[in-house]
């Protein structure tokens, strides 16, 4: 006999698929096999099935199967596949190939491009199970949990007390134990650091995200090295500048009692939008990022509040905003008065008292810089994912994610993370109350620590070393400085002039003085497993060397000629250059696309 798996059975791990084959065989030949006096011999090429009856750790599916198999007298014996020619041949029939139906696209692939690139033939957890069985350091633990658990001495039971098997997956303290496999560890970190669902968070936030579901020895060091050597993060984060002492407002008593908001402008126009209204709840730190127009009137902003904030969370008691005509116009003042809202504006010349939204603004710009295309026109598509990533990350003030404080749990990022054991309503209410008390205490401690940091020690670099250059004072040829790389390079240090000044080797397109203050330079971190993106060499087209054009960013007319601002493939914004049309003979399709996108 030969049968193919249905959709649900395709998701079983290897152990359960092999056991299911035995179940199907007994169902097919039940009239011949049930209640035999002599034991039936079952041959399998999956050795772990020999110990299945002895296991003391199993799930509900295994319980059902045990009850069914109790009517049969049988023994399982291991026999390698090469000695079982006929069954092995049947398992390889083309019409039984384990190929799922083609998925129907519901959401544009570009929103999940960074995730799609990492898809593998097998689900991540299936590969982790297989690698756990291959990891010799885990052999004793798996054997203890599957065979020797009852007869083991107390010392062994205590040593392995935090381990358990869940459908063949080895857990440590209810988290998946990642085997000693660098590729799997990198894939996990790509999901919880590189993915647009998280938005390239820092070391601590990446550690917290990974630790929700996975653990392994040396995890913290792995994450530190991975984040430090991330090419995108190094380009997007600026060297830390001196911070003014903060003057925090009082701790609010509950979620959405107090909100702060700000208005970010300067984005390239996309679907009529070129600005973002940022609204932050001061208690949970939950945020809403609302696209709008820089020409929005006071009435428009009020409508955005009603549509995106008030309908979800009710009326805030207090609002906090920097003084400015956009937010303090007559219409909004009249609206606040009519609705009974007491506006608390930052003191004149002291905008740091509302530093909360300023930090969120930096996060938004960092996130969008990490994922937008070179023409920067698709920032609007990434904004919902930026909001999700911000609310999913642990906040330094509350030590919990905004999503968790508002809803009592962290969001599910993929189906394998979904919990089956849902807490009852009373337990959830008690848990939420405790979380709010913890958050309030953490906020008070955080506000007491809001003071200026100690003066940092300047970095030192050697000649020949490659460094990042802070791009804040460099006029790059791009549409929106807000979506530019924060750091340029890396560039080679050609000479150390003093402890505070260095000379760099710059590209010819960057027409600026090549001596820089040390405070504008940053170390380049490398990971052998993830080399930095190198600039590609030119390609030969019709006997001539040419560099590949990634996108056209702008155009202008000079005399009788059209010039195009070119973003070169594999190069940073510091290498963007104006080129005459005749130099772009082999890039006519890209020029046509540029004009189509402008319509």
Automatic annotation (TrEMBL):
GO terms for biological process: chromatin remodeling; DNA integration; DNA recombination; proteolysis. It holds the Pfam family SH3_Tf2-1. One of its GO terms (molecular function) is DNA-directed DNA polymerase activity. Residues 547-599 form the Chromo domain. The keyword Phosphoprotein does not apply. GO terms for cellular component: nucleus. Residues 251-410 form the Integrase catalytic domain. InterPro entries: Chromo-like_dom_sf (IPR016197), Chromo/chromo_shadow_dom (IPR000953), Chromo_domain (IPR023780), Chromodomain_CS (IPR023779), DNA/RNA_pol_sf (IPR043502), Integrase_cat-core (IPR001584), Integrase_H2C2 (IPR041588), Retrovirus_Pol_polyprotein (IPR050951). Keywords: Aspartyl protease, DNA integration, DNA recombination, DNA-binding, DNA-directed DNA polymerase, Endonuclease, Hydrolase, Magnesium, Metal-binding, Nuclease, Nucleotidyltransferase, Nucleus, Protease, RNA-binding, RNA-directed DNA polymerase, Transferase. It comes from the Eukaryota. It is found in: Nucleus. This is Retrotransposable element Tf2 155 kDa protein type 2.
